[in-house]
Each structure stands twice: as C-alpha cells, then as structure tokens.
Amino acid sequence: MGGRILRIGGGCGFWGDSAAGPAQLVRHGDIDILVLDYLAEITLSLLARVRRRRPELGYATDFVSAVMGPLAAGIAARGIRVVTNAGGVNPHGCAAALRAVLRECGVDLRVAVVSGDDISGKLAALGAAGVRTPGGEPLPAQVESANVYLGAAPIAAALSDGADVVITGRCVDSALALGPLMAAFGWQASDLDLLAAGSLAGHVIECGTQATGGVFTDWQDVAAGWDDMGYPVVECHADGSFIVSKPQRTGGRVDPATVAEQIVYEIHDPAAYVLPDVTCDFSGVHLQDLGQDRVRVLGARGVYPPAHYKASLTSAEGFRCTATLMIAGGQADARARAVGEAILKRTRRMLSEQGFADYSAVSVEVLGAGEMYPPAHRPAEVHEILLKIAVAHAEEKALELFAREIAPAATSMAQGITGFAGGRPAVQPLIRLVSCLVPRNAVDVRVEVDPAPSPPRPLGRDCVGADSPAAIAVAAADAPPANGGHLESATKAAQVTVPLLRLAHGRSGDKGDVVNIGVLARHPRWVPFLEQVLTAQRVAEWFAHLVEGPVERFDWPGLSGWNFVLQRALGGGGTASLRYDPQGKTYAQVLLDMPVTVPAGLLR
User: Fold this and answer.
1) Quick one: which of 387, 195, 343 has its CA closest to 280?
2) What is the percentage of the chain residues whose pLDDT exceeds 70?
3) CA distances (Å), origin 234, targets 287, 393, 481
C-alpha cells in the first residue's frame, strides 16, 4: 500500500482565531503543511487603514508574534512548511517582520512572498477599459482596499523553489492548501478534477474547527470539548481523494455530518463554484465514515477556470454608530421599542437644530423578542431584552451627538434600563464592499523566495501502512429511495408538525450582502419529502422580513441536501450593515426552527 501523501493542517480560520490551533497542529498534528487563513474582505480595508498610519504594518501581526515567534523552532525541527495569507496589504512588510523574529530565535527558514493582488493603483485604468461592478456601476473613485483573489499556482511555485514559509496577500482561501498539493504531486493547470479535489480539501480546513464540530448543528454532541477543539487535518493522496481527521485526544468530532456542514458553507451553486484555478463541481461529492474521527471525501470534479480574477474593493461611505441597552421586567419588548423610537426622534430633532442632515440609515432591533423570526413566530412575552440602535451618517460629528444621547435614556425613559458600564458607543467608518472582474493580463503576480544554499526538500511522505485509495473500493453514496410507495404511503398516515431541525442539519454564512444556507437531510430517505416542502418560495416567505432580494435553491445530491442563496439579505453586509448579525451566522438556526408537517411514519 504505497504512494505518497501530504498531511495539511488548518490552524487558523480568521484574524482573531486562537493561537492554540497552530500550536496544537505543530506539536501533535503530525503535519507536513500548516495553513493559516487570516483574511476576510473587510479585514483588508482595516489593514489598509493601519498601513496608512504606519507604513511598516498592514499585515496580520498575530502571525508573527503569536504563531511564528513561539513555534518557529518546532516548525523547523519537524520540517513543516507554512502557507498563509497573513501578508494582508503588505506581504513584504510581514516577511521582513518574520525574518527579524527568526533571527532572534536563531531559526533558519526560507521565506517567500507572493504579491500582485493589490490593484488599487490600477483602478483608473481598469475603469477606463470598461471594468464595472456586477450592477454596471463605475468603480469607486476612492477605495480603502482593492485586491484580486489570486490562485494556488504562485504558492506552488514558491514551495517548489524551496520556500519554508509562503506569505501571500489576498488569495482564495482554498488556494493555501491547493498550492502545496500542486507542488507535492506535480498537478498541472490541466488536471482539472485534481485541482477541484485539492480546492475542496482547502475549503474543508480553511475555517479551522468549523470542520471538526465547531458551530455544529447538534451542539450538545460536541460541547464538552469546546475548551480544546481539535483543528482539522487533511491527509491527501495524489489521486485527489483525502481523509479529514484531527489530532487525537482533542475536542470536537469528525464525521460525515460535521464535514458536510463545512463543505456547504459559503458555496452558492455547488455545481459551479468558481475559483481562479478551476471551476469546481462539488454536487457529486460524497463522504465515507471511516470511524475514529476519520472521513474520506471523494467525487469532486473540475472544469476550466474563468478568464478573469474576481476583485473585492472596499470604500468608506461615511460613519456608523451602534448602541446597546438592556431592559428588564414586564412588557420589556414594548418598552424597548418605545425607547428606541424616542432616542431616534430626539437625536433627529437635535441634528436638525445643529444643521446636520438626517441619518442615512437606521436600524432598531429588539434582541430577545424574536427579531430574526417571522412576526407570527415571535414569543408573546419576554422579560429581558437587548435593545440595539444603529445609525449611519456622512459626518462623524453627527454620530458623536448620537453617542452622547444614549445614556440619558437611563433617567428620562423606561424603568429597568442598564448596560452603560462600557461608556459611550464608538463612532466607526462605514465600509462598503463591491466586487468586479479583472482580466488576468492586468494583474502582475510576483513570487520572491529567499536564496538557499541547498536544493529544496521534497514535499509529502510515503503512505506505508496508511489507507491507500488504490486498495479501497469506492463505495457509492447512499442513494435516496424513489419517491414511490414509501413516500406516498407515508403521506397518507397521521401528520405531525416538527421543526426542520428534526430532519436536517444546517450551516449559513455570507458573501457580502448574500446569505448562503446549506441544508442537509439527516437521512437520505427524507430527501424526497424535504424536496417537496423545502422550496425556495417557502424559504423566501420565512425570511421575508429580512431578505429584500430573490431566493434560489441549488440541489446537492451527493450530500443529500440543498443550498439556498438569499440575495440582499444582510442590509448591505459586513461593516456596511447596521444589523446585529451582518454575516448571516444565525440564518441556518432560524431556518431550522421553521415548522414542517411530516407524516408520523417518516420520522420512525
């Protein structure tokens, strides 16, 4: 049972993730590659602001201070390669800081930098060449950040040239894992199925513990291990198949349900997931439970990538301010709404008196009163409420006035108000995200690797004694039964109403102002029934109070599920949104509470 394998660990899902993740994987993960993902769209705008104040910064400083400083010696001793997008808007600055830390530690690691994603200096030329946003609007004249999503090929080149640490700016998250796989196995741009499989491996680990039981629907099954969650490891073979696992004796779990929830996360059409290296078809992906926290993933397919890079642009559009207050006691819901209306009415009068325009946007949410749910499904009475008031304005001073007028509610409005200990709410920039497509020939990708005195080490290891895909028959995914007798006879039996949670798992996330909700049947037998009742129209009706755009449903037969894509669902999304949940993190749970009427026999 031979061949080669590459073990890749996902140690970071966002800037702010625990430093315990990389340490766990380096010390106990038996990995060849450590992948660290720090970037989200809005993160780049924040890093750009930092760099304008301090030109040497603009990268994820935690990578240097909290990860590489403490772990560099262990990384070098174990021969682990590190691939990260911690470079942010200043990958060369990140590399310089890392080299300084490595010198202090007495550790010799070759550092590579992948750059060229920053197109902020090219926007005028791109606009003149006809590049527009998806809605046809001109590109913003002033931006906080403008970056294309690079692919895996530059990372592969850096590793093949002997880099021990590869630092990139913006690239697609999954490329951090696909690049090492291309370098280890010699995959080429024309190996489309393999590139799709490697992209899926990267997608599974890119959010850290979300693949090992983090934010899992059946949270009770994993809560005991939340304090020491295991970070994901993918054991990848040259044929594109891979096994998901985690270090032994760590919290969480790896089974088909936890892995499937991560696979559906933030993917719209599973048959056409567009990446810079390949357009992926994940609709036929299926999972094999190997037991002992090991799941084999197979079935990814690929077609040619697009002729353009996707770019994300962030621009400042004024300011925002969010205040929260707690209100307790009888009729807390009604009192909270009255307080919110009064604060807005008073501050609007004061703005007018001082010559300011009205707010450009307002949002009042009474959290705890079922604000996320359709009105008919909200509780009749609650006794403890969090009132959230958010406002936006073109002028910072106008929102400083708003911030001063929150605390007076404690003595002039409803009884039972508290929550002022944190002081006045802060005024922050309102950052809006837009996207566009940039021709590949307009992007200059550069790969720079520290010189080395010796040839590069090969990546990966022999898989002696490991599960060899060539020796294991690929089991077909469980196919749901035909819609015939079983479903027809069941629908004639007694009916019961249960929450969708009884029948399905769910996971939700955002892409700008778009929400993706993946729904996975708990058993393939239930797919025909859910296909009839869980329509795009019904989901749209359930979220009608939150979603302004259309709702689409995409089938995911390999995982016995569907993806629902909700357009204009987050009030602008990210830091452009005034909502308490601007990233769609709660939407799956809200949908899983939707009542469905089920034949009683189906549940048995």
Assistant:
1) 195
2) 95
3) 14, 47, 32
| Residue 401 in tokens | 């006035």
Residue 603 CA from chain centroid, whole number: 33
Greatest Cα pair distance in the chain: 80
> Do 287 and 259 touch, CB atoms closer than 8 A?
yes
Which two three-digit tokens encode residue 252?
A: 């969480």
DSSP structure class, residue 14: S
Distance (Å, rounded) from C-alpha 566 to C-alpha 268? 10
Q: Rounded distance, CA 172 to CA 174, Å?
A: 6
Q: Which of 160, 127, 161 is nearest to 141 (CA)?
A: 127
Give ∠ CA 438-152-262 in degrees, rounded to 5: 100
Mean of pLDDT values over 27-40: 96
User: What are the Cα distances from residue 122, in Å, to 142, 147, 149, 204, 273?
Assistant: 12, 10, 15, 33, 27
Residue 318: count of CB within 10 angstroms of its CB: 18
Report how far residue 35's alpha carbon sits from residue 17's, in angstroms, rounded to the nearest whole number.
13
The CA distance from 55 to 63, in Å, is 18
Which has the closest alpha carbon to 65: 38, 46, 89? 38
CB contact set of 319 (below 8 Å; sequence gap of 6+) = 392, 393, 394, 395, 396, 398, 399, 427, 428, 429, 430
185: nearest Cα among 159, 209, 208, 167: 159
Q: Which residues 6+ apart lie within 8 Å of 295 measured at CB?
A: 243, 244, 245, 254, 255, 256, 259, 287, 288, 289
* DSSP assignment letter at 475: P
Point out which residues pair with 313 in neighbouring strands.
146, 434
- Which pLDDT tens digit goes with each residue over 400-446? 999 999 999 988 998 889 988 778 999 998 988 889 999 999 999 99
Which strand (E) or helix (H) includes residue 519? strand 514-521
Residue 310 bridge partners (DSSP): 437
Instruction: Show the beta-strand stretches assigned E in 173-232.
Output: none
pLDDT tens string 156-195:
999 999 999 999 999 999 999 999 999 999 999 999 999 9
The identity of residue 152, as a single letter, is A
Residues 316, 9: Cα–Cα separation, whole Å: 36
Q: Which tokens in the block code for residue 166?
A: 């590869």
Rounded to whole angstroms, the Cα distance separating 378 from 389 reads 20
Q: How far is CA 6 from the centre of its chain?
A: 24
